[in-house]
Design brief:
The complex is a heterodimer of chains A (173) and B (199). Chain A has 173 residues and is α+β, with helices and mostly antiparallel strands. Chain A contains six helices and eight strands; from the N terminus they run αββαααββββααββ. The longest helix of chain B is centred in the first third of the chain and has 19 residues. Chain B has five helices and twelve strands. Classes of the chains: A alpha+beta (173), B alpha+beta (199). At the A-B interface, α4 and β3 of A face β1, β2 and α2 of B.
Chain lengths: 173, 199
C-alpha cells in the first residue's frame, strides 16, 4: 500500500510542481467532422531552461540581430517604455470593407485584434516581455532576461487564431 | 421584478459608459483618416507622452538635445524668422498672407492665440466644364505659444522639446484636410478614444 502511494505520489507531486511553475499550452483544433485536436503543454521551466542555456549552445551570431535593425532598438525601447507608463486606451483602429484591426493598450499589455470575414486573430503582447525581448546595445538577445520575463506572463492568452473552423490558441497557465 | 432588473442593468451600463471613453487627464493626440472610395477609416490615438518619446528617439529627425535645424537649408536664417515672428506678435491680430489664384486661395492669419492657415484648392475642370478633380480644403491651426516655444532655441536650431511640451497643453483641432474623397483630422484632447463627442 505504501509502495503504491509512493509510486503514484512521486509523479503526481512532480507534475504538480511543474504545473505550479507554469505551463505554456498550445491548443490546435481542426474543424470539420474529421478534425483532430492537438494539445501540447510545455512546462515553463523547460522553456526558461532552454532560453538560459541557449547562449552556451547556439552560435553567437544566431543570437544577434542584424546591424541595420540595431539602430531602431533605442526607438522601440523608448516607445515600449512610454506605452507601459501611458494610460489604457484604443491606440489604433483600421476599419476596411472586410477587415477590422484594433490595437489597444490594456494594463501592461498590448492587444491586437484582427477580424476578417473568415479569420479572427487575437494577439496579446505583454509589454514587459516585449521589452525583455529587445536585444542589448550590442544587438545580443538577452535570453536570460527573456526567460525571467516569461514567469511574469502567467495566466495570459498570448495568441488565438480562428480560421474558418480551425482554431489555434496559445496561452500561459 | 423583471422591469426593475432591466432598469438596474441599464443604470449599470450607463454608469460604465464614461469609463469606456475616459477623460484620462493625459493629453492624447488623435489622427483620423476617412477615405470614401476605399470605405476605410483609420483612427490613431496616442498619449502625448508616447509621441514625445517617439520624436525624442528619432535621431534622423531630431538633433541631439531635442533641437532641430531649420535655417539655411531652407534659405532662411532662424534669426530672421525670430525677428519676423516678434514683429508679427507686436502687430496683433492680422491677415498675414493672402494669395488668390485660379487654382487656389491661401490665407495665413493670426487670430487671438492662433495662427490659422487656410488653403482652398479649387476643383479642376475638364474641357467640357465638368470637374475632373474635386477641390481640397486644408485648415491648420497652430497656437502662437507653440511657435514661441519652438523659436526659443538658440542659433540655427528650433527648440523642439519646448514645442512638444507646449503641444501637451493644447486641446482642440490642429489640422483638418478635406477633399472630394478623404477627410483627415488631427487633434488633441484628454479622451483615450475617438468618441462621438470628440468628433
Amino acid at each position: 500500500m505504501t509502495k503504491l502511494a509512493v509510486i503514484l505520489g512521486v509523479p503526481i507531486a512532480l507534475l504538480a510542481t511543474v504545473a505550479s511553475l507554469g505551463v505554456v499550452v498550445v491548443d490546435v483544433r481542426e474543424g470539420g467532422p474529421d478534425g483532430s485536436r492537438i494539445v501540447v503543454p510545455v512546462p515553463l521551466v523547460f522553456a526558461q531552461a532552454a532560453l538560459a542555456v541557449a547562449p552556451a549552445v547556439a552560435p553567437a551570431d544566431k543570437l544577434r540581430i542584424p546591424d541595420e535593425a540595431l539602430e531602431h532598438i533605442g526607438l522601440a525601447r523608448e516607445i515600449l517604455e512610454a506605452l507601459a507608463k501611458a494610460p489604457d486606451g484604443e491606440l489604433v483602429r483600421v476599419e476596411e470593407r472586410d477587415e477590422l484591426v484594433v490595437i489597444t493598450k490594456e494594463g501592461r499589455s498590448l492587444r491586437v485584434r484582427v477580424s476578417g470575414e473568415r479569420e479572427n486573430v487575437n494577439v496579446n503582447v505583454p509589454l514587459q516581455l516585449a521589452l525583455q525581448a529587445l536585444p542589448d546595445e550590442h544587438g545580443r538577445i538577452r535570453t536570460a532576461a527573456l526567460a525571467g520575463a516569461l514567469a511574469g506572463v502567467r495566466f495570459t492568452d498570448l495568441v488565438e487564431v480562428q480560421d474558418g473552423n480551425d482554431h489555434v490558441r496559445v496561452w500561459v497557465w | 421584478m423583471r422591469k426593475s432588473t432591466l432598469a438596474g442593468v441599464g443604470l449599470l451600463a450607463l454608469s460604465a459608459l464614461p469609463a469606456a471613453t475616459a477623460q484620462t487627464g493625459t493629453a492624447w493626440l488623435h489622427v483620423r483618416v476617412e477615405e470614401a472610395k476605399e470605405a476605410s477609416k483609420v483612427s490613431v490615438n496616442l498619449p502625448m507622452t508616447v509621441v514625445e518619446a517617439v520624436l525624442k528617439a528619432s535621431p534622423e529627425i531630431i538633433e541631439k538635445h531635442g533641437k532641430i535645424h531649420i535655417g539655411e537649408e531652407h534659405g532662411l536664417k532662424m534669426a530672421d524668422i525670430r525677428k519676423a515672428w516678434k514683429a508679427l506678435a507686436e502687430a496683433g491680430d492680422a491677415e498675414l498672407v493672402t494669395v488668390e489664384s485660379v487654382e487656389e486661395n491661401v490665407k495665413v492669419m493670426r487670430k487671438g492665440d492662433l495662427v490659422q492657415v487656410f488653403v482652398d484648392n479649387k476643383a479642376k475642370l475638364g474641357k467640357d466644364g465638368k470637374p475632373v478633380k474635386g477641390g481640397e480644403e486644408v485648415r491648420v491651426e497652430v497656437p502662437v505659444s507653440l511657435v514661441d516655444a519652438f523659436l526659443s532655441g538658440e542659433g540655427e536650431e528650433g527648440n523642439f522639446q519646448a514645442a512638444v511640451a507646449e503641444l501637451q497643453k493644447r486641446r482642440g483641432d490642429i489640422v483638418r484636410v478635406k477633399d472630394d474623397d478623404s477627410n483627415v483630422r488631427v487633434w488633441i484632447d484628454e479622451q483615450n478614444t475617438q468618441s462621438p463627442a470628440g468628433k
